[in-house]
Amino acid sequence: MKALGDRLRLAITLGALALALGVAATPAQGATGDPLFNFSAPATVPPGTGFQGPCGLAVDVAGSLYVSDYYHDIVDVFNSSRTYQTQLTNVEPLDGPCGAAVDSTGKLYVNNYHRNVVKFMPSAFPVTTSTKYGTSTTVDSHNSTGVAVDPLTNNVFVDDRSYIAVYDSSGAELPKIGAGSLGDGRGIAFSRFPLTNGFVYVPDASDNKVKIYNSESGTLAGTIAGPGPGKQFVSLADSAAAVDSVTGDVYIAAAAGSQLSEHPESTIYVFDSSGGFKGRLKYNVVNASPVGLAVDNSAGANQGRVYVTSGNSIKATVYGYAPGSAVSVENGLPAVFSLSVASDGDGAGSIVSSAAGIDCSTACGAEMFGGEKVPLSASPDAGSSFVGWSGGGCSGTGDCVVNMSQATSISAEFAELPSSSSGDETIAAPGSSVSSPPITTAVQHRGRHHKIRHRHRAKHRHHARQHR
Fold first, then answer.
1. Rounded CA gap, 426 and 361, in Å?
2. Residue 235 within any structural domain of the chain
């Protein structure tokens, strides 16, 4: 059940800043790509402890910002100046609020994490300090992972993982989209940019591509395969999407490395309306499971501002980036470094990385962004043993994680096993696993610990959460 959240909070680093590289509360003005500000719920807002696990954001037509506060089971509403207005408190506690969307009349749609989408009616709109919300009406209950609204028709688009359910403003169901081409949708965004008018963007964790659908025809209009030529997204399992309806820019949150780490990170990548890679927001999001992401598409002064939550952590915050804050390769941030991987020794084996797409049977190098963490695994062929790593700050025989701060070369040494002296006897070379008990590396241990913790959490929550 959701009460397990108290126990989960103890497992999260209390003092960790939620953006990589320690973004200051008031960043230096004019620094390339830095956020404009960050903020949390003030101490005067119940329960008085700020955000705890914000995992969803929405901006309405008046520029008000809605923050889904997962562990508090509330949605906080701020006006365009970030002044607290009101709070939605009657979210059922079985699963916390995550994805959110608001239509042009103020109807608030909340995606309870991987379970359903419910609708709340405000007593007044635009939202003021006196606005209250009534009881919820269930719109969709198919283990949904995201919700978006067309601001013109007020049609509602719900990511039901293998298809997109569509409802009109009254709740009547319209024809589904994406069945047969969508495998595991995670998050959703709607565009009113003229060249992509009516397009729906859905990150698909089944093949780690962003699927783009024409909502009028229901057809697949295109895909975004990754951040730049020859690069693929590492994982879209806890993704989010947003579109600037004035510039057409598309923002996609994607894993920056292994999601089995204690503090998984996500990068916010930016693409133009044609799917061309423009860059990324300067800082990774830490504890990013999942990320809240929204663009202000109001007609106000903040049009184009990008809001990003700091991730699934205690004392979390929301960061605001100015329009056009994507940091490109051309202006030096982030840097791009080459990673070269080679095998050595008289033995044979394979070297692979799920993050970088490296497979030494086909390719042994990649271009990586500065700050990316690239996991590498080495597996000896039959008749060989893995001796260890050299270069890239790695050693030993466990998995290697390369931190890309410069051009890096790394080598994996494989040794040929000596022939046995008789047909009934096998002699193992030092470091081989033939005569030694299996060894659990630190990386493997962390992965198992994460999986066990995840299963334990899932057991105490609604069955829909287990689909994560």
1. 28
2. yes
Quote the domain boundaries for residue 108: 2-321
- 328-364: pLDDT as tens digits: 654 444 556 778 888 888 888 888 876 656 777 656 7
One domain for residues 47 and 164: yes
Cβ atoms of residues 55 and 309 within 8 Å: yes
Nearest to 158 by CA among 183, 135, 181, 189: 189
User: What is the CATH number for 210?
Assistant: 2.120.10.30
Residue 466 belongs to some domain of the structure: no
Greater model confidence, 313 or 145: 145
Asked whether residue 446 is assigned to any structural domain, the reply reads no
List CB contacts of 168: < 8 A, sequence separation 6 or more. 153, 154, 155, 156, 174
Those residues with Cβ within 8 angstroms of residue 406's Cβ, 6 or more apart along the chain or in another chain: 337
| 342 and 302 within one domain | no
**In terms of Cα–Cα distance, which of 337, 170, 196, 363 is closest to 271?**
196
Q: Distance between CA 234 and CA 261 in Å, rounded?
A: 14
> CA Rg, the chain, in Å?
24
Residue range 11-43, pLDDT digits in tens = 222 223 333 323 333 333 345 788 999 999 999
Mean pLDDT (whole number) for 108-127? 96
Q: Which residues pair with 140 in a beta bridge?
A: 117
Whether residues 65 and 185 share a domain: the answer is: yes
The pTM assigned to this predicted structure is: 0.69
| Number of domains the chain is built from | 2
Query: Which three-class secondary structure state does DSSP give residue 209?
Result: strand
Residue for token digits 């292994």? 258
Q: List, edge to edge, every strand of the sheet that includes 173-177.
A: 146-149, 156-159, 164-167, 173-177
| Residue that is last in its domain, among 321, 350, 373 | 321
Distance CA 12, CA 8 (A): 7
Same-domain check for residues 406 and 349: yes
Per residue in 156-199, pLDDT (tens digit) is 999 999 999 999 999 999 999 999 999 999 999 999 999 999 99
Three-state SS string over 395-443 comes to CCCCCEEEECCCCEEEEEEEEECCCCCCCCCCCCCCCCCCCCCCCCCHH
Listing DSSP states for 122-148 in one string gives: BSSSS--TT--B---EEEE-S---EEE
Q: Which are the contacts of 212, defined by CB distance < 8 A and separation ≥ 6?
A: 196, 199, 200, 201, 202, 220, 221, 222, 223, 224, 275
Task: Provide the 10 A C-beta neighbour count for residue 9.
Answer: 14
